Amino acid sequence: MVEAGLCGRSCLSCPLHGPLCSGCDNRGCLVLACFKGKRYTGINAAGCIYTSVCPRKVDARSVKLDIPLPTAKARQRLKKTPRFIPIIKAGDRRSWFWRWVAEPRTVIVKLHDLMVSPELSAQAEAEGLRGYLNLDGQTIVSTVMPDEAMARLSLEDYQRYLKSLEPDAFFNPDSETYIDDPRLYSWRSLLRSLKMTSELAKLDAELIGLIKGANREQVRYCVKTLSQLSVTKYALPSRELWRDGLFKEFLAYALEALEDYVGGRYQLIIYGRPYTWATEYPHASLSWFINAQKRACYQGTQPIIHYILDDHLYCDECPCNCPACQEIKEEQVTYIRVNNVKAIALHNLTYLQALHSEGGTRKLGFR
Ligand SMILES: [Zn+2]
Ligand SMILES: [Zn+2]
User: Fold this and answer.
1) Residue 361, SS3 per DSSP
2) pLDDT of 88 strictly over 60
Protein backbone atom coordinates (compact mmCIF):
# COMPACT_ATOMS: atom_id res chain seq x y z
CA MET A 1 0.00 0.00 0.00
CA VAL A 2 1.28 3.45 -0.84
CA GLU A 3 1.04 6.13 1.82
CA ALA A 4 -0.33 8.77 -0.47
CA GLY A 5 -1.28 8.75 -4.14
CA LEU A 6 -0.46 11.45 -6.64
CA CYS A 7 -3.77 13.01 -5.66
CA GLY A 8 -2.12 14.03 -2.39
CA ARG A 9 -4.67 12.20 -0.28
CA SER A 10 -3.48 9.82 2.38
CA CYS A 11 -4.44 6.35 1.20
CA LEU A 12 -5.09 5.30 4.81
CA SER A 13 -8.04 7.63 5.20
CA CYS A 14 -9.26 7.51 1.62
CA PRO A 15 -12.68 5.95 0.97
CA LEU A 16 -11.56 4.78 -2.45
CA HIS A 17 -8.60 2.84 -1.24
CA GLY A 18 -8.97 -0.92 -1.35
CA PRO A 19 -11.38 -2.39 -3.84
CA LEU A 20 -11.74 0.80 -5.89
CA CYS A 21 -8.27 2.32 -6.02
CA SER A 22 -4.79 1.03 -5.39
CA GLY A 23 -3.28 4.48 -4.93
CA CYS A 24 -3.80 7.27 -7.41
CA ASP A 25 -1.35 7.35 -10.31
CA ASN A 26 -3.27 9.80 -12.48
CA ARG A 27 -0.50 12.00 -13.91
CA GLY A 28 -2.96 13.69 -16.23
CA CYS A 29 -5.20 14.86 -13.39
CA LEU A 30 -6.12 18.53 -13.58
CA VAL A 31 -6.17 18.83 -9.77
CA LEU A 32 -2.61 17.50 -9.62
CA ALA A 33 -1.68 20.14 -12.18
CA CYS A 34 -3.40 22.72 -9.98
CA PHE A 35 -1.27 21.62 -6.99
CA LYS A 36 1.77 22.17 -9.14
CA GLY A 37 0.68 25.73 -9.80
CA LYS A 38 -1.04 25.42 -13.19
CA ARG A 39 -4.05 27.66 -13.50
CA TYR A 40 -7.13 26.99 -15.61
CA THR A 41 -10.28 29.03 -16.03
CA GLY A 42 -13.17 27.34 -14.33
CA ILE A 43 -10.96 25.03 -12.33
CA ASN A 44 -8.93 27.16 -9.97
CA ALA A 45 -11.51 29.90 -9.61
CA ALA A 46 -13.98 30.14 -6.72
CA GLY A 47 -16.51 28.05 -8.64
CA CYS A 48 -14.08 25.22 -9.34
CA ILE A 49 -15.97 22.10 -10.42
CA TYR A 50 -13.59 19.93 -8.38
CA THR A 51 -14.09 21.62 -4.98
CA SER A 52 -16.12 18.70 -3.66
CA VAL A 53 -13.36 16.17 -4.43
CA CYS A 54 -10.25 18.30 -3.84
CA PRO A 55 -7.89 16.71 -1.29
CA ARG A 56 -7.03 20.22 -0.06
CA LYS A 57 -10.63 21.19 0.54
CA VAL A 58 -12.35 18.01 1.64
CA ASP A 59 -11.55 15.53 4.37
CA ALA A 60 -11.62 12.11 2.72
CA ARG A 61 -13.43 10.55 5.67
CA SER A 62 -16.47 12.73 5.01
CA VAL A 63 -16.78 11.49 1.41
CA LYS A 64 -19.71 9.12 1.02
CA LEU A 65 -19.70 6.63 -1.81
CA ASP A 66 -22.73 4.75 -3.03
CA ILE A 67 -21.57 1.23 -3.60
CA PRO A 68 -24.07 -0.59 -5.82
CA LEU A 69 -25.34 -4.01 -4.83
CA PRO A 70 -26.70 -6.56 -7.29
CA THR A 71 -30.48 -6.59 -6.82
CA ALA A 72 -31.87 -8.29 -9.89
CA LYS A 73 -31.10 -10.43 -12.89
CA ALA A 74 -31.30 -8.60 -16.17
CA ARG A 75 -33.78 -9.95 -18.75
CA GLN A 76 -32.81 -11.42 -22.10
CA ARG A 77 -35.07 -9.80 -24.65
CA LEU A 78 -33.14 -9.04 -27.83
CA LYS A 79 -33.24 -11.75 -30.45
CA LYS A 80 -29.64 -11.48 -31.74
CA THR A 81 -27.60 -8.36 -32.17
CA PRO A 82 -27.34 -7.07 -35.74
CA ARG A 83 -23.83 -6.31 -37.05
CA PHE A 84 -24.75 -2.70 -37.63
CA ILE A 85 -27.41 -1.00 -35.53
CA PRO A 86 -28.51 2.40 -36.81
CA ILE A 87 -29.03 5.14 -34.27
CA ILE A 88 -31.99 7.17 -35.55
CA LYS A 89 -33.38 10.63 -34.82
CA ALA A 90 -36.71 10.25 -33.07
CA GLY A 91 -37.68 13.76 -34.16
CA ASP A 92 -36.55 13.58 -37.79
CA ARG A 93 -38.48 11.28 -40.07
CA ARG A 94 -35.83 11.56 -42.75
CA SER A 95 -33.91 9.02 -40.64
CA TRP A 96 -36.79 6.52 -40.57
CA PHE A 97 -36.28 3.66 -43.03
CA TRP A 98 -37.71 0.69 -41.23
CA ARG A 99 -38.19 -1.37 -44.40
CA TRP A 100 -34.50 -1.16 -45.20
CA VAL A 101 -33.13 -1.85 -41.76
CA ALA A 102 -31.48 -5.28 -41.90
CA GLU A 103 -32.93 -8.19 -39.91
CA PRO A 104 -33.29 -8.59 -37.01
CA ARG A 105 -34.67 -5.08 -37.49
CA THR A 106 -33.34 -3.02 -34.59
CA VAL A 107 -32.93 0.72 -34.05
CA ILE A 108 -31.43 2.82 -31.29
CA VAL A 109 -33.18 5.97 -30.07
CA LYS A 110 -31.33 8.48 -27.92
CA LEU A 111 -33.16 9.35 -24.74
CA HIS A 112 -31.60 12.80 -25.02
CA ASP A 113 -33.50 13.46 -28.29
CA LEU A 114 -36.73 13.00 -26.36
CA MET A 115 -35.58 14.99 -23.33
CA VAL A 116 -34.92 18.12 -25.38
CA SER A 117 -38.39 18.09 -26.92
CA PRO A 118 -41.28 17.90 -24.41
CA GLU A 119 -43.74 17.48 -27.27
CA LEU A 120 -41.87 14.55 -28.78
CA SER A 121 -41.30 12.98 -25.42
CA ALA A 122 -44.99 13.23 -24.47
CA GLN A 123 -46.03 11.57 -27.72
CA ALA A 124 -43.45 8.77 -27.50
CA GLU A 125 -44.29 8.15 -23.85
CA ALA A 126 -48.01 7.97 -24.60
CA GLU A 127 -47.68 5.54 -27.52
CA GLY A 128 -44.60 3.63 -26.44
CA LEU A 129 -41.50 3.83 -28.61
CA ARG A 130 -42.50 1.09 -31.03
CA GLY A 131 -45.97 2.57 -31.49
CA TYR A 132 -44.63 6.08 -31.93
CA LEU A 133 -42.12 4.95 -34.56
CA ASN A 134 -44.62 2.56 -36.13
CA LEU A 135 -41.81 0.04 -36.19
CA ASP A 136 -42.13 -3.70 -36.57
CA GLY A 137 -38.86 -4.48 -34.89
CA GLN A 138 -36.72 -4.06 -31.80
CA THR A 139 -36.04 -0.76 -30.05
CA ILE A 140 -33.10 0.13 -27.85
CA VAL A 141 -32.96 3.31 -25.75
CA SER A 142 -29.51 4.87 -25.54
CA THR A 143 -28.69 6.90 -22.46
CA VAL A 144 -25.46 8.30 -23.89
CA MET A 145 -25.88 12.06 -23.55
CA PRO A 146 -24.06 15.30 -22.71
CA ASP A 147 -22.82 15.61 -19.11
CA GLU A 148 -25.16 18.45 -18.14
CA ALA A 149 -28.14 16.39 -19.28
CA MET A 150 -27.14 13.20 -17.44
CA ALA A 151 -26.57 15.10 -14.18
CA ARG A 152 -30.20 16.24 -14.23
CA LEU A 153 -31.68 12.73 -14.52
CA SER A 154 -32.64 10.89 -11.35
CA LEU A 155 -33.42 7.21 -10.96
CA GLU A 156 -37.14 8.11 -10.98
CA ASP A 157 -36.72 9.93 -14.30
CA TYR A 158 -35.08 6.89 -15.90
CA GLN A 159 -37.75 4.61 -14.48
CA ARG A 160 -40.56 6.80 -15.78
CA TYR A 161 -39.08 7.11 -19.27
CA LEU A 162 -38.31 3.42 -19.61
CA LYS A 163 -41.66 2.25 -18.25
CA SER A 164 -43.60 4.41 -20.68
CA LEU A 165 -41.33 3.99 -23.72
CA GLU A 166 -41.31 0.18 -23.29
CA PRO A 167 -38.16 -0.48 -25.32
CA ASP A 168 -36.89 -4.03 -25.84
CA ALA A 169 -33.56 -2.98 -24.38
CA PHE A 170 -31.87 0.04 -22.85
CA PHE A 171 -28.40 1.17 -21.87
CA ASN A 172 -27.78 1.76 -18.20
CA PRO A 173 -27.22 5.45 -17.23
CA ASP A 174 -24.18 7.16 -18.70
CA SER A 175 -21.51 8.59 -16.40
CA GLU A 176 -18.73 11.18 -16.53
CA THR A 177 -15.44 9.33 -16.64
CA TYR A 178 -12.68 11.51 -18.05
CA ILE A 179 -9.05 10.63 -17.61
CA ASP A 180 -8.06 14.17 -16.59
CA ASP A 181 -10.63 14.39 -13.80
CA PRO A 182 -9.61 13.50 -10.25
CA ARG A 183 -10.40 9.81 -9.81
CA LEU A 184 -12.76 10.50 -6.95
CA TYR A 185 -14.84 12.54 -9.38
CA SER A 186 -15.12 9.79 -12.00
CA TRP A 187 -15.64 7.12 -9.35
CA ARG A 188 -18.51 9.08 -7.87
CA SER A 189 -20.16 9.46 -11.26
CA LEU A 190 -19.62 5.81 -12.18
CA LEU A 191 -20.92 4.55 -8.83
CA ARG A 192 -23.99 6.80 -9.07
CA SER A 193 -24.75 5.29 -12.47
CA LEU A 194 -24.20 1.71 -11.32
CA LYS A 195 -26.33 2.24 -8.23
CA MET A 196 -29.23 3.37 -10.43
CA THR A 197 -28.49 0.49 -12.79
CA SER A 198 -29.04 -2.15 -10.14
CA GLU A 199 -32.58 -0.74 -9.65
CA LEU A 200 -33.22 -0.43 -13.39
CA ALA A 201 -32.29 -4.09 -13.89
CA LYS A 202 -35.69 -4.90 -12.38
CA LEU A 203 -37.48 -3.42 -15.40
CA ASP A 204 -39.00 -5.70 -17.98
CA ALA A 205 -36.49 -4.89 -20.74
CA GLU A 206 -33.00 -6.08 -21.49
CA LEU A 207 -30.21 -4.12 -19.87
CA ILE A 208 -27.24 -3.38 -22.12
CA GLY A 209 -24.17 -2.47 -20.10
CA LEU A 210 -22.35 0.76 -20.96
CA ILE A 211 -18.65 0.21 -20.44
CA LYS A 212 -17.36 3.36 -18.79
CA GLY A 213 -14.26 4.18 -16.81
CA ALA A 214 -11.37 6.62 -16.70
CA ASN A 215 -8.78 3.88 -16.25
CA ARG A 216 -8.40 0.11 -16.24
CA GLU A 217 -9.59 -0.23 -12.63
CA GLN A 218 -12.81 1.64 -13.35
CA VAL A 219 -13.51 -0.27 -16.56
CA ARG A 220 -13.02 -3.54 -14.69
CA TYR A 221 -15.21 -2.46 -11.79
CA CYS A 222 -17.92 -1.33 -14.21
CA VAL A 223 -17.97 -4.64 -16.11
CA LYS A 224 -17.78 -6.67 -12.91
CA THR A 225 -20.78 -4.88 -11.38
CA LEU A 226 -22.82 -5.22 -14.57
CA SER A 227 -21.91 -8.91 -14.85
CA GLN A 228 -23.33 -9.44 -11.35
CA LEU A 229 -26.66 -8.27 -12.79
CA SER A 230 -26.33 -11.02 -15.44
CA VAL A 231 -25.74 -8.52 -18.23
CA THR A 232 -24.40 -10.23 -21.36
CA LYS A 233 -24.57 -7.42 -23.94
CA TYR A 234 -22.28 -4.44 -23.60
CA ALA A 235 -21.65 -1.20 -25.47
CA LEU A 236 -18.37 0.70 -25.55
CA PRO A 237 -18.93 4.40 -26.31
CA SER A 238 -16.04 5.12 -28.64
CA ARG A 239 -16.37 8.63 -30.07
CA GLU A 240 -14.39 10.45 -27.36
CA LEU A 241 -11.90 7.60 -27.00
CA TRP A 242 -11.13 7.82 -30.73
CA ARG A 243 -10.80 11.57 -30.57
CA ASP A 244 -8.29 11.28 -27.70
CA GLY A 245 -6.35 8.38 -29.25
CA LEU A 246 -7.39 6.03 -26.44
CA PHE A 247 -9.72 3.67 -28.25
CA LYS A 248 -7.39 0.69 -28.65
CA GLU A 249 -6.20 0.93 -25.06
CA PHE A 250 -9.72 1.05 -23.61
CA LEU A 251 -11.03 -1.61 -25.99
CA ALA A 252 -8.30 -3.88 -24.59
CA TYR A 253 -9.37 -3.08 -20.99
CA ALA A 254 -12.98 -3.79 -21.91
CA LEU A 255 -12.21 -7.11 -23.62
CA GLU A 256 -10.01 -8.25 -20.75
CA ALA A 257 -12.74 -7.42 -18.20
CA LEU A 258 -15.43 -9.11 -20.32
CA GLU A 259 -13.35 -12.28 -20.59
CA ASP A 260 -12.69 -12.28 -16.84
CA TYR A 261 -16.20 -11.51 -15.58
CA VAL A 262 -18.64 -12.53 -18.30
CA GLY A 263 -16.68 -15.22 -20.12
CA GLY A 264 -17.39 -16.34 -23.66
CA ARG A 265 -21.09 -15.38 -23.51
CA TYR A 266 -20.69 -11.64 -23.94
CA GLN A 267 -21.51 -9.49 -26.95
CA LEU A 268 -19.78 -6.16 -27.44
CA ILE A 269 -21.18 -3.28 -29.50
CA ILE A 270 -18.89 -0.43 -30.51
CA TYR A 271 -21.09 2.61 -30.03
CA GLY A 272 -20.80 5.92 -31.83
CA ARG A 273 -18.38 5.26 -34.65
CA PRO A 274 -19.39 3.88 -38.02
CA TYR A 275 -16.40 1.78 -38.98
CA THR A 276 -13.02 0.91 -37.58
CA TRP A 277 -10.33 -1.64 -38.19
CA ALA A 278 -12.35 -3.72 -35.76
CA THR A 279 -15.34 -4.68 -37.89
CA GLU A 280 -15.37 -7.97 -36.00
CA TYR A 281 -17.62 -6.23 -33.45
CA PRO A 282 -21.12 -4.98 -34.12
CA HIS A 283 -21.31 -1.20 -34.48
CA ALA A 284 -23.99 1.33 -33.65
CA SER A 285 -23.88 4.82 -35.06
CA LEU A 286 -25.71 7.87 -36.34
CA SER A 287 -22.91 8.86 -38.75
CA TRP A 288 -24.87 7.56 -41.75
CA PHE A 289 -27.48 10.24 -41.07
CA ILE A 290 -25.17 13.02 -39.88
CA ASN A 291 -23.16 12.59 -43.07
CA ALA A 292 -26.32 12.70 -45.17
CA GLN A 293 -27.22 16.01 -43.53
CA LYS A 294 -23.77 17.25 -44.56
CA ARG A 295 -24.47 16.00 -48.12
CA ALA A 296 -21.79 13.33 -47.80
CA CYS A 297 -22.08 9.73 -48.96
CA TYR A 298 -19.91 6.66 -48.53
CA GLN A 299 -18.29 5.11 -51.60
CA GLY A 300 -15.90 2.24 -52.34
CA THR A 301 -15.09 -1.11 -50.78
CA GLN A 302 -13.61 0.70 -47.76
CA PRO A 303 -15.55 3.80 -46.78
CA ILE A 304 -14.45 6.97 -48.51
CA ILE A 305 -16.58 9.96 -47.65
CA HIS A 306 -17.60 11.73 -50.80
CA TYR A 307 -18.95 15.27 -50.40
CA ILE A 308 -21.62 16.24 -52.86
CA LEU A 309 -20.66 19.80 -53.62
CA ASP A 310 -22.35 20.29 -56.93
CA ASP A 311 -26.10 20.42 -57.03
CA HIS A 312 -26.26 17.91 -59.87
CA LEU A 313 -23.29 15.73 -59.17
CA TYR A 314 -24.15 12.34 -57.82
CA CYS A 315 -24.47 8.75 -58.94
CA ASP A 316 -23.27 9.35 -62.51
CA GLU A 317 -20.38 7.01 -61.97
CA CYS A 318 -21.59 5.39 -58.77
CA PRO A 319 -22.14 1.63 -59.26
CA CYS A 320 -24.30 1.39 -56.13
CA ASN A 321 -27.45 -0.71 -56.36
CA CYS A 322 -28.88 0.27 -52.97
CA PRO A 323 -32.64 1.08 -52.99
CA ALA A 324 -32.01 4.84 -53.15
CA CYS A 325 -29.51 4.70 -56.00
CA GLN A 326 -31.59 2.08 -57.83
CA GLU A 327 -34.71 4.21 -57.77
CA ILE A 328 -32.80 7.09 -59.27
CA LYS A 329 -31.41 4.88 -62.02
CA GLU A 330 -34.85 3.51 -62.80
CA GLU A 331 -36.17 7.01 -63.14
CA GLN A 332 -33.29 7.61 -65.53
CA VAL A 333 -32.14 10.53 -63.52
CA THR A 334 -28.42 10.49 -63.08
CA TYR A 335 -28.24 12.75 -60.09
CA ILE A 336 -29.79 13.27 -56.72
CA ARG A 337 -30.34 16.90 -55.88
CA VAL A 338 -28.26 17.77 -52.86
CA ASN A 339 -31.27 18.67 -50.79
CA ASN A 340 -32.41 15.08 -50.90
CA VAL A 341 -31.08 14.15 -47.48
CA LYS A 342 -33.39 11.19 -47.34
CA ALA A 343 -31.95 9.53 -50.43
CA ILE A 344 -28.37 10.07 -49.28
CA ALA A 345 -29.29 8.77 -45.81
CA LEU A 346 -30.78 5.59 -47.25
CA HIS A 347 -27.69 5.08 -49.39
CA ASN A 348 -25.42 5.57 -46.35
CA LEU A 349 -27.48 3.26 -44.17
CA THR A 350 -27.46 0.49 -46.77
CA TYR A 351 -23.75 1.01 -47.30
CA LEU A 352 -22.84 0.62 -43.60
CA GLN A 353 -25.11 -2.39 -43.22
CA ALA A 354 -23.38 -4.01 -46.19
CA LEU A 355 -19.93 -3.05 -44.89
CA HIS A 356 -20.64 -4.86 -41.63
CA SER A 357 -22.10 -7.94 -43.24
CA GLU A 358 -20.49 -10.87 -44.99
CA GLY A 359 -19.34 -9.98 -48.46
CA GLY A 360 -19.08 -6.30 -47.56
CA THR A 361 -19.95 -3.50 -49.96
CA ARG A 362 -19.07 -5.59 -53.04
CA LYS A 363 -22.63 -6.81 -53.08
CA LEU A 364 -23.75 -3.20 -53.60
CA GLY A 365 -21.58 -3.09 -56.71
CA PHE A 366 -18.48 -1.40 -55.27
CA ARG A 367 -15.04 -2.73 -56.11
ZN1 LIG B 1 -25.24 6.04 -55.93
ZN1 LIG C 1 -26.51 3.71 -52.99
Assistant:
1) helix
2) yes
CB 348 within 8 A of CB 297: yes
Query: Distance, CA 330 to ligand 2 centroid (Å)?
Result: 13
CA–centroid distance, residue 349 to ligand 2 (Å): 9
Cα separation, 231 vs 223, whole angstroms: 9
The reported pLDDT for the residue numbered 313 is: 46
DSSP H helical ranges for the chain: 30-35, 111-115, 118-127, 129-133, 147-152, 155-165, 183-200, 216-227, 239-243, 247-261, 287-293, 323-330, 341-355
CA of 83 to the centre of ligand 1 (A): 23
Are 320 and 364 a contacting pair, CB within 8 Å? yes
Residue pLDDT, tens place only, 89-121: 999 999 999 999 999 999 999 999 999 999 999
In the reported structure, the alpha carbon of residue 283 is separated from the centroid of ligand 2 by a whole-number distance in angstroms of 20
Give the integer Cα–Cα distance in Å for 31 and 163: 40
CA distance 9 to 151: 26
Tell me the CA–centroid distance for residue 168 and ligand 2, in Å. Answer: 30
110 CA to centre of ligand 1 in angstroms: 29
Complete domains list, the chain, with CATH: 1-64 (no CATH), 84-285 (3.20.20.105), 295-364 (no CATH)
**Which amino acid, one-letter code, is at 299?**
Q
Ligand 1 center–CA 306 separation, angstroms: 11
Q: Are 24 and 5 in contact (CB under 8 A)?
A: yes
Ligand 2 geometric centre to CA of 345 (Å): 9
- What single DSSP character describes residue 109? E
In this prediction, residue 312 has a pLDDT band, given cuts at 50, 70 and 90, of: very low
- Which ligand has an atom closest to residue 361 CA? 2
Distance 352 CA to ligand 1 centre (A): 14
**Each residue's pLDDT tens digit, 113-149:** 999 999 999 999 999 999 999 999 999 999 999 999 9
